[in-house]
Write a structure and sequence with these properties.
With about 400 residues, the protein is an all-beta fold. It has one domain: Methylamine Dehydrogenase, Chain H, CATH 2.130.10. Helices cover about 5% and strands about 50% of the residues. The strands form seven sheets. The chain has a seven-stranded antiparallel sheet with strand order 17-16-15-18-19-20-21, with no helix packed on it. Strands 1, 2, 3, 4, 5 and 33 form a six-stranded mixed sheet that branches. Strands 13-12-11-10-14 form a five-stranded antiparallel sheet, with no helix packed on it. Strand 8 and strand 9 form a beta hairpin. The longest helix has 7 residues.
């Protein structure tokens, strides 16, 4: 059985089983010099690939956020009609139960005002919504604009200003990709007593979490990144300067802070339910070796992807091809060795880890914290640009 879905400027790669595994294939974004559009790919049961161009060369996917718990995804796309015209941006909502776009709307034009950050959040009714923080040179002009993700609400009624206090129950899954700078998290501030706050619309709003002294110490932290916020955990990165940082997890089940979780060198954190994943790296030296698996990296730059080799060449780090998977309930780490620097976990669900290593898609089962044998699901150049995944059909959550 084959399956093909078009989502604006991104690709949904499908594996044709009774329960569908779908991959969103696009640039992770975050680097304005790489605004690539995307293609649609179909992966059939025998692992073969079919490809079709979706969006014109003047389109670019700028931001992607997926909540597998809420079964919803949000895509931000920019359309440049001509160098002289203003860029049109639009937002698409993906229903992860159906694996299809349920709604697409253009953002209202706001002359002199720009989006400075965005995130997903749960409102008081428990629904997930999208919010962007808009600001101009006048601080008094800053405000939050919500977009209602509900399919039943028309575009003309979907945008509305909201109070900053309404948008602090954030939903974030972390950083996709290896060499991109994208993340669906947001920036926080921390008061001297460790209380985490969010500054929005000129207000400093408490989030209800306090980082204990045993984690923050007496260090001078110049920033806090909210990396993950889901039903199981809240995960933050305390920034100290350069590559110095501390990663800590607050387990929502019992209010326990978990630290340390990973060894030094692990970064680019990402969560899937009760699991959080980090990519291992080591500091290089003058005579440093090359990151793992260089013979399998993309050899030419082209749409929709970019040359991962360029990132590794610029990086001061060596990536050995190790992925750390931490279970916040069992407080146990699993090490997934791929021997490929360009590798990442795309999904963990129903006891299986789905991961990509260069242009190969794998699945490996986890039983009582022990990895089984990896199984190849598909292989193809487009899989280098698969950075998000979800399950639909019978048995999906």
């Amino acid at each position: 059985m084959k399956y093909r879905i078009i989502i604006g400027g991104v690709a949904l790669c499908s594996i044709g089983w009774a329960q569908q595994l779908k991959l969103i294939c696009a640039s992770p974004g975050g680097n304005v010099s790489l605004p690539y559009s995307a293609t649609i790919e179909t992966v059939v049961l025998d692992g073969s690939l079919e490809s079709a161009r979706l969006s014109p060369s003047n389109s670019a996917i700028e931001w992607v956020a997926i909540s597998t718990e809420a079964k919803i995804g949000v895509l931000i796309e920019r359309l440049d009609d001509s160098p002289e015209s203003a860029a049109e941006s639009r937002i698409s909502v993906v229903d992860l139960n159906r694996g299809a776009v349920s709604k697409t709307c253009s953002f209202p034009l706001t002359p002199g005002v720009a989006d400075v950050e965005q995130w997903l959040f749960r409102d008081n009714s428990g629904r997930v919504s999208y919010v962007s923080r808009l600001a101009s040179f006048q601080a008094s002009d800053e405000y939050l604009r919500r977009f209602d993700l509900s399919e039943s609400v028309p575009c003309g009624e979907s945008f509305a200003k909201i109070a900053a206090t309404e948008a602090v129950k954030m939903v974030a899954a972390g950083a996709p990709g290896v060499g991109a700078y994208a993340s669906d998290g947001t920036y926080l501030t921390m008061r001297p007593d460790g209380e985490l706050t969010k500054i929005a619309s000129g207000q400093q709003i408490p989030l209800g979490y306090t980082v204990p002294l045993s984690i923050r110490g007496n260090n001078e932290w110049f920033g806090v990144n909210l990396v993950v916020s889901n039903e199981s955990m809240l995960a933050i990165v305390l920034l100290q300067g350069g590559d110095k940082h501390q990663f800590a997890i607050y387990r929502k089940q019992d209010g326990k802070w978990l630290y340390p979780v990973f060894p030094p060198g692990v970064g680019r954190y990402r969560a899937f339910g009760r699991f959080v994943v980090g990519i291992d790296s080591e500091l290089g030296s003058d005579g440093r070796r090359t990151s793992a698996g260089s013979n399998a990296w993309r050899s030419a730059q082209g749409r929709p992807g970019y040359r991962i080799e360029e990132f590794f060449a610029r990086s001061k780090k060596i990536f050995p091809g190790r992925l750390y998977v931490y279970d916040v309930v069992r407080e146990k780490v699993i090490i997934l060795t791929t021997e490929q620097a360009d590798s990442e976990v795309l999904l963990i669900e129903q006891g299986d880890i789905y991961y990509r290593a260069a242009d190969v898609l794998y699945k490996v089962a986890v039983t009582d914290g022990v990895l089984g044998s990896s199984v190849v699901l598909a292989k193809g150049d487009v899989l280098r640009d698969a950075h998000w995944a979800f399950l639909t059909g019978e048995g999906s959550k």
